[in-house]
Amino acid sequence: MGNRNYAVVCCIIGSFISIISGYVTGVMSGAMLFIQEDFKLSDEQVQLLTGIMNVSAIAGCLTAGQVSDYFGRRRTFSIAAWIFFIGSVLMSFAGSFGMLMAGRCVTGVAVGYALSTAPVYAAEISPAKTRGSLSSIPDISINFGILIGYVANYFLGRLPLTYGWRAMFGISALPSAIFAVGAVFLPESPRWLVMHGRVDEALDVLQKLCATGDEAQVLWNEAAPPEEWSGGLGVWKEMFLHPTPPVRRMLVAGMGVLFVQHLSGINGVQLYSARVFKAVGIASTNEILAANIGVGLAKTVFILTAILLVDRVGRRGLYLSSLAGVIVSLSCLGLSLTVIEHSKPNQDVPWPRAAIASVFTFVASFSIGLGPITGAYSSEVIPLRLRAQGVGVGVAFNRVANATVALTFISLSNAITMGGAFFLFGFLSVGAATFFYFFCPETQGRPLEEIEEVFRQGWRERRHNLHGPFHVFKHTEMR
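^ Major facilitator superfamily (MFS) profile domain-containing protein, sequence as received from the core. Prediction below:
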């Protein structure tokens, strides 16, 4: 049999598209400071430019599943990389706000493809025992890309005004082109190969991915025979017109976790960190960009920690602990900003330090569970035959919530104060925790073909069997 490390390497290489996605997201946080000055943009234009990428990402999400099912996972990676290349070139050579918007929209489509395809690919080539860790690699890659974007902000921001922000966008074109060519050399998902009747090729890939015959047998069982795959309209009908009760519960859980992720307001810090730090009292652009790097490092370190823990502790324990930290951090941040906003000028109070600490505990709490587990969990619980398009729809919901925060954060902060905005996100996070507690069972260590059995138990019966946030649903509890 093959080497188990081969699956790890494939997940890492396939997640390179997520690094690019994270970079184009993170780099905007600092680039907007220079773009606003160079093009003399209003706050409303900055808000629109920042958020429009997530609106266009919805189109990418809704089409990525069909493209992925037709062309394959690795060719979809290549398509997304070429779209990233075009968007990067458009933005780096933009001579007007309209051209910037066009480049940002093109980039958003690629983000939708990357977010929909990378977790599906990782889930389909990973053995059950390590699927939680390997399926989290796309998320750590996104955050690594965000960190690189923050570092690019800091160093390229020292260039002359009109060249610095262009370089920030332009440098992503080269790795996009390289990955677009290199992605075709990745092994195709065995699941996709079997769906298209290429059984011999699927067996060859399985032998490379699995260290033992038992692991290969489990992955083989997870790949449904071609005749069970309806594709196209059949997938949409099963998802939305005639879903069985277990499938409906799986879709609610899988799509639901993707939607509630951004109710925490992570984009308020991720995209508008410069404004948050200014509100705290950091005035220097270099200090703001350096603080951004600190935020990126905190996210990366805690996501790495989550990857080490997710297959030991389980999804529910990490996710609910993460949300508890998010709620406390958002409450402290909202309180700190409110006190700062009502303080007298030059008044020496400890609240700025408390606010900065709350920002870091917020991103750390988000990154230990709510960030990495969302993509992994949704890829696990959505049924195999519906996964590519189901995850695409779920990520579209994710982008709707993401875009709502991105497009309204400045206006919301002006209307109810920035402190009030974070109090609101804390309240919404309580709703996210309630949803996950009642509707999302544990999937740790289960082969994908067994997960549908977990959802055969109704929500009402399941609530009666809950014993705490770390409860695992045992085989004996299933009907």
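The radius of gyration is 22 Å.
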